[in-house]
Amino acid sequence: MEPLQSLPGTEDILPQRQSAGQAIKVADVTTWQRIEAMGRDILQRAAYQEIRTPIFELTRLFERGIGEATDVVGKEMYTFLDRGERSVTLRPEGTAGVVRAYVQHKLHGQGGVQRLWYTGPMFRYERPQKGRQRQFHQLGVEVLGSHDPRADVEVIALATDFLQALGLQTLTFHLNSVGTTADRQQYREALVAYFTPYQAELDADSRQRLNRNPLRILDSKDPKTQAIAQDAPSILDYLGPDSQRHFDQVQQYLNDLDIAYDLNPRLVRGLDYYTHTAFEIQSADLGAQATVCGGGRYDGLVEQLGGPATPAVGWAIGLERLSLLLEQLAPPPPNPVDLYLVSRGPAAEAQALRLAYQLRQQGMTTELDLSGAAFGKQFKRADRSGAIACLILGDSEAEIGTVQLKWLQSGEQIQLNQTALVNEAATWRQKLAAARNSQE
């Protein structure tokens, strides 16, 4: 029978292993764990609280929230009827679900500003390529309840801190303002007037967007359309006084924090709910899919989804693209195994199971060989495990309650009492840590 394969656009995130001294090239779960741990630490220190929302929602949430004229809703959503004949969609992004939860559970009734963050899988039916999958993962933040431009800059600063803490330096921060709904309506009319004479020369998607969502033409990847768009009107010339003041303050606060940015009036986000600030953080190391982080302000979305008028701002980071960047920096360190425990014979194997359990309870990472193979093969696996030391339990050790400890780097071997090893775990943790530090 032919083995089953994962669906196109999905990936298995595998544990790291080393073979013959060389890491197997896989989507490494240790890289993901590092990203998630760093994000959790930075966001918790900024007083953000985690929120978890369902992976699927009613389709109309995304139609109303994202916009029916967007490519996401029109072309990319995984939508189906459930057994209750409800139209259901796997979430294509995180913000709409967070806002739905904010409204449904009346978090606005708590007063003040709600600082929330989330992480998890999202789904869009796109052409799979480097850094873009049909099931992809995001980590995102949402700040609900503040008009203040400082909220915009706070979330931007958190994104830059997060990426820099992971070791990423060669990133470009693009900044724009898309103004209010009224600003965009005037700008929309100007774009339609500009692009209409070029209609026959635009790519097919841009021709469809011309009267439906002309701002999205600016985001076209078609070279000919990009060339035409070079001389298109700038949104910055259509900002009203309030929008301009807000954007000026955002820029001033970014300058105060020494966060470098490039003004990019061609930057438009692919979702209809954005207002005022829009931004992206990009990496030249990712090719066409250069955006690592994208976000902005969405002051009308809460009201649009049935809640009170509530200003909000946030961003999302694509974890697949981020993990690709981190793998280019350096391979992640191997999983730290303290002890690799080998055993042979019924009595020894029973004692080894108990000893591994006890050592793990004492805080030592212990891998128990379960193969039942000859000692020689078990020793080879111990050498490949990355462990600091190998514990050896045979019939003679089982009979008198001892275990042999072999330091894998030096080859030095000593005999220990099993009970004493467990009781003196704090001392042995220090010795193992010191040995690991000396190897690094």
From TrEMBL:
Swiss-Prot/TrEMBL GO biological process terms: histidyl-tRNA aminoacylation
Superkingdom of origin organism: Bacteria
GO cellular component entries: cytoplasm
PROSITE patterns: AA_TRNA_LIGASE_II (PS50862)
Family annotation (InterPro entries): aa-tRNA-synth_II (IPR006195), aa-tRNA-synth_II/BPL/LPL (IPR045864), Anticodon-bd (IPR004154), Anticodon-bd_dom_sf (IPR036621), His-tRNA-ligase (IPR015807), HisRS-like_core (IPR041715), HisRS/HisZ (IPR004516), HisRS_anticodon (IPR033656)
Record's subcellular location: Cytoplasm
GO molecular function terms noted in the UniProt entry: ATP binding; histidine-tRNA ligase activity
Catalysed reaction, written as an equation: tRNA(His) + L-histidine + ATP = L-histidyl-tRNA(His) + AMP + diphosphate + H(+)
E.C. code: 6.1.1.21
Keyword line: Aminoacyl-tRNA synthetase, ATP-binding, Cytoplasm, Ligase, Nucleotide-binding, Protein biosynthesis
One family name in Pfam for this protein: tRNA-synt_His
Chief location bin: cytoplasm
Membrane spanning residue stretches: none
Binding residue positions for L-histidine: E93, G94, T95, R124, Q138, E142, R269, Y273, Y274
Enzyme kind, highest EC tier: ligase
Nucleotide-binding recorded as keyword: yes
SUPFAM superfamilies in the cross-refs: Class II aaRS ABD-related, Class II aaRS and biotin synthetases
Domain Aminoacyl-transfer RNA synthetases class-II family profile: 32-334
UniProt similarity note: Belongs to the class-II aminoacyl-tRNA synthetase family.
Subunit structure: Homodimer.
Annotated protein name in UniProt: Histidine--tRNA ligase
Originating organism: Halomicronema hongdechloris C2206
Lineage: Bacteria, Bacillati, Cyanobacteriota, Cyanophyceae, Nodosilineales
